[in-house]
Structure formats: structure tokens, C-alpha cells
Specification:
This protein is of the alpha+beta class and 358 residues long. The protein is built from 9 helices and 18 strands. The longest helix is centred in the first third of the chain and has 14 residues, at 89-102. The structure holds pyridoxal-5'-phosphate. The site of pyridoxal-5'-phosphate has 12 residues, from helix 7.
């Protein structure tokens, strides 16, 4: 296994750092250390644990112009015995490399990716929050660093991991959804399934509309403007006639690890799972008829969060009786207690971080 070079200044910095006792929120605090690795001459050269700091780039660096960039989002949880465990990091490693292939970027071998995640977690062990549901959020990312304005794949890349002690993504206990009827997020053959910055940049115009309309999350439909795909940073699920429904994966939807985990938990609990097409107009009808009793978003950052209402383009708001969201809250509690080590989850979901004395 390739070793990560540990820089003494990084260790000194992290030793002095303490996390706030107050509400952490999401992505507001950042650990004072980071992993950096350089790709050049067709291979990963070295991995370093460095003090957190700015990345200097030439103004003609390719990522700044053509968006050759990918990222991941994953969490490490403190267990009751103070051990630190990552939640299904192999899935993030695989998805990172899937994104890398689509964006003409080099893969980070799974073993190197996991080792780098483990090292930053081990040095951040005192920064992993203690409260159930809180975590150390890791953000691995890769950018194209070759200099030159020609539109072609870069030959040089930088891989970085930063870490953020985090709590709840949403401040409330439910979300209001804005149905985006005009713009689309992804089209067949495009990059919707890849975790690359462009998908998020393209969602920001609708984010502004969403917030101005008093909502929290944008719901994206497919390119026919009929079928639900996902939200800007999470997947969508709902309960119809007591069954758990979610859009089937296509190349326009991000294959969420929380989505996969929730479906596995539901199947284990003998809840019927349906992965298929969900037309937005049928969903709204089913809500009015009382057959769709719950709807929720799910993702690493948001875990599971019930949807309280859907705002449509015609100005109508369709309210969920989410207070009765028994199934979503049951799945949420289950997932959180598995991640926090309060309950035994399926084999292999928690990846232990080896303790390092420093
Ligand atoms: C567009 C999008 N969909 C879904 C998800 C949920 O994926 P995961 O559960 O792996 O975090 C995310 C977050 O990563 C996302 O950005």
C-alpha cells in the first residue's frame, strides 16, 4: 500500500484544533489538515497529509475553464467505544472512479482512495463529533491541473481530501420541495450519473428560484418533463399504498449510497420496494387521493428528511401529512443508529479506521 507522507506541521495543527460544542450545521467547519496527491507522467506520484491551505493555480489551468472535476461525499462516525468508522467508503471509491472515467480523468485505485480516507480520519479522530447523527464529513475531489487553453483532457491532476465536522444538513425537520418544470438537470448520454461540478453549477439557477419561492430543495424531472429523477443533492423516495417507491437508476441519476442502503434496509424489513418510473402528475394525484402518504429525500448529507410539501409551477402547493411519516422516520432512525454503532447493521457497512497515536 502506498504510504501517505505525514507532515509534522499538519500533526501540530490538528492537535491544537477543537470542535465547537454548539450546532455544527453542514460544511461550515473544516479540519486544519488535508490529503493531497499529484498525478503526473501517467501515475499517482505521492500522497501527503498537509496543513489545510489554499491551492495555487495558474489562471490557464484546465479545471478553471472546462470543469474537468469530480468529487465525493462520505461520513465517518464515532462509535460508542470511541472507535471511528466510515460508512460504506468502498461505494464512494467505486463511484469516484466511475465519475473519473466519464470525465476522462485517471482512477484513484480503490486501495489508495480508502487508505487516504482512513489516514485523514485517523488524524482527525478528535474532530469526529460525539452526538448521535453527527459525523466527520469527508470531501475527496480531483481537478485537472494541466495548464493550457486547448480543449483536451488534462494530463496532470490533483486529488485532495478535506474533512468537515458536521451535523444536520437542513435546519428544519422537513423540507419543502420546488418542482422544476422548465430546466432539466441531465439528459441521456450526458453526465447526470457522475458526481462532477457541472451538474451542480447547472442546478444553481433553480436553487435561487427554489429559495425565492420559500422552498428548500429543487426536484428535477427527466428530459420529457414528466418523470421524477432526483433532487439537486439527494435522491427521492415515497410511500404509495404502503410500498416504497423510488425512480429506477438511469444514466441521468446519481446512484446514491444512501438510496441503496435505504432500499436494502427496507427489503430486509419486508417493506415492498418498487424501482420504476414515477410521473410527477400521478404523484401529485396520489397525494391528493391520500394514497401517497409519505415522501422523503435521502443522501449522505441529509440522511433521510421528510418532504412536507411540493410547490408546482401553477402556484399550487401539495401538502404531505408528513407528521404521520412513520415509515420514513423508522428508516431514518434505523440508518442513524447503524451508522452510530447503536444497532448492528448489515455485514460490512462500517469500515473501521485504525487508531494512530500521535
Ligand atoms: C445529485 C445527487 N443525488 C443523490 C445524492 C445522494 O447520494 P449519496 O447517498 O451517495 O450521498 C447526492 C449526494 O451525494 C447528489 O449530489
Amino acid at each position: 500500500m502506498r504510504k501517505v507522507e505525514i507532515h509534522p506541521e499538519a500533526v501540530e495543527r490538528v492537535k491544537k484544533y477543537t470542535i465547537s460544542d454548539s450546532v455544527l450545521g453542514f460544511g461550515k467547519y473544516v479540519a486544519p489538515i488535508m490529503i493531497e496527491a499529484i498525478y503526473d507522467n501517467g501515475q499517482w506520484q505521492r500522497f501527503d497529509l498537509l496543513p489545510y491551505g489554499p491551492i495555487q493555480l495558474d489562471p490557464c489551468t484546465k479545471v478553471l475553464h472546462y470543469g474537468q472535476e469530480i468529487f465525493e461525499g462520505m461520513k465517518a462516525f464515532r462509535q460508542p467505544n470511541d472507535e471511528i468508522k466510515l460508512f460504506r467508503p468502498e461505494m464512494n471509491a467505486r463511484r469516484f472512479n466511475q465519475s473519473a472515467r466519464r470525465m476522462s480523468m485517471p482512477e484513484v485505485p480503490e486501495e489508495l482512495f480508502l487508505n487516504a480516507c482512513e489516514v485523514i480520519c485517523a488524524y482527525c479522530k478528535n474532530l469526529v463529533p460525539k452526538r448521535l447523527g453527527e459525523s466527520l464529513y469527508l470531501r475527496p475531489f480531483m481537478i485537472a491541473t494541466e495548464v493550457g487553453l486547448g480543449i483536451k483532457p488534462s494530463k496532470q491532476f490533483l486529488f485532495v481530501i478535506v474533512a468537515s465536522p458536521s451535523g444536520a444538513y437542513f435546519s428544519g425537520d422537513s423540507v419543502k420541495v420546488f418542482i422544476e418544470r422548465d430546466d432539466i438537470r441531465a439528459a441521456q448520454g450526458g453526465i447526470g450519473f457522475a458526481k462532477t461540478g457541472g451538474n451542480y453549477a447547472a442546478s444553481l439557477q433553480s436553487y435561487t428560484k427554489t429559495i425565492q419561492a420559500g422552498c428548500d430543495q429543487t426536484m428535477w424531472l427527466d428530459s420529457s418533463h414528466q418523470y421524477i429523477e432526483e433532487m439537486s443533492g439527494m435522491n427521492f423516495m415515497c410511500i404509495i399504498d404502503g410500498e416504497l417507491h423510488t425512480p429506477a437508476l438511469t444514466d441521468t441519476i446519481l446512484d446514491g449510497i444512501t438510496r441503496k442502503s435505504v432500499l436494502e434496509l427496507a427489503r430486509h424489513e419486508k417493506i415492498k420496494v418498487v424501482e420504476g418510473k414515477i410521473a410527477i402528475d400521478s404523484l401529485l394525484q396520489l397525494i391528493e387521493e391520500g394514497r401517497c402518504t409519505e415522501a422523503f429525500v435521502c443522501g449522505t448529507a441529509s440522511v433521510i428528511c421528510p418532504i412536507s410539501s411540493f410547490l408546482d409551477k401553477d402556484g399550487r402547493t401539495h401538502y404531505m401529512k408528513y407528521g404521520e411519516g412513520k415509515m420514513s422516520m423508522y428508516l431514518r432512525e434505523k440508518l442513524i443508529s447503524i451508522q452510530g454503532g447503536r444497532e448492528q447493521g448489515p455485514e460490512g457497512w462500517l469500515y473501521p479506521v485504525k487508531d494512530i497515536h500521535f
